[in-house]
Design a protein that fits this description.
The protein is mainly alpha-helical. It is built from 13 helices and no strands. Helix 1 packs antiparallel against helix 2, helix 2 runs antiparallel to helix 6 and helix 6 packs parallel to helix 9.
Length: about 260
């Protein structure tokens, strides 16, 4: 944890001192560029940090072994992350270098958003770290990539340009389909929300929350169930690693862990 505290204090201190009197665009650009480089290094060159670190490393391994057609058949709803893993694996990139590519994209989106919209950039960087956005990026990569696409789409949402907004939301949704739920914002935000409209929106939101998973197509495939089972066993082995554990003695009816959405987190 010391390295993260060091990053927080250093970025906060440098930002406060450099922008205390003169927060011109050049100073802001240099500060955000330095923050970008430091955060990319922190998020990329790590080991066993983040509760999904080994899960994503495992995904990178087997996605590289799968064919493109198999990936598209199994993960047809959200194929882009797995296709990206496949392409990077074919290019001979190690898992840390794959993380570099992902984090360059994530941090670039975050820093350009801060540059465009923040009045106090060093406070925004401080909150980006302390409010767990950085940790979120390191733990939930697919969701983070989808969120980054929403950041890219935000200016088009403000300017009411539906085509680029829709394109970015659709591409981000192919990394994680939860992003598709923000598409109605394009139509809802300009509306004058009276009591009746708010009631209908609240009811619709409750219905989506309660029954949304059942309405989404694509239940967990056999391959996904096998992956989930292997992940479950791996975590169990970690949890009781001090014991003499052998998979061969496990009962054959271990339940396969399920998720509401039927997709990899």
């Amino acid at each position: 944890m010391a390295v993260y505290y060091f990053a927080i204090f250093m970025l906060t201190g440098i930002g406060y001192i450099s922008m205390k009197k003169d927060a011109n665009r050049r100073t802001v650009s240099l500060y955000l560029a330095g923050s970008f480089l430091l955060l990319v290094c922190l998020a990329s060159f790590r080991y066993a940090i983040g509760f999904d670190y080994f899960s994503y490393r495992s995904i990178y391994g087997w996605a590289g072994e799968w064919s493109f057609s198999l990936i598209l058949r199994v993960y047809w709803m959200e194929p882009l992350f797995f296709l990206l893993c496949k392409i990077c694996s074919l290019a001979g990139l190690s898992y840390p270098m794959f993380l570099v590519i992902i984090n360059v994209f994530l941090m670039a989106c975050a820093m350009q958003f801060i540059y465009r919209y923040s009045r106090i950039p060093w406070v925004s960087v401080y909150l980006y770290i302390c409010l767990q956005f950085l940790a979120y990026n390191m733990n939930l990569m697919r969701q983070s990539i989808a969120t980054a696409f929403f950041i890219l789409a935000f200016p088009f949402l403000k300017k009411r340009k539906i085509l680029p907004f829709t394109a970015l939301i659709l591409v981000g949704g192919l990394f994680h389909n939860s992003l598709l739920f923000v598409f109605p914002l394009y139509f809802l935000l300009p509306m004058k929300l009276d009591r009746k409209t708010l009631t209908w929106l609240a009811a619709l939101t409750a219905m989506a929350y309660l029954f949304g998973a059942a309405l989404l197509p694509g239940q967990a495939s056999a391959s996904y169930k096998i992956w989930q089972l292997s992940r479950h066993l791996f975590l169990e082995c970690q949890r009781i690693s001090l014991c003499d554990f052998s998979i061969s003695v496990l009962p054959a009816d271990i339940p396969v862990p399920q998720t509401d959405s039927g997709s990899v987190a």
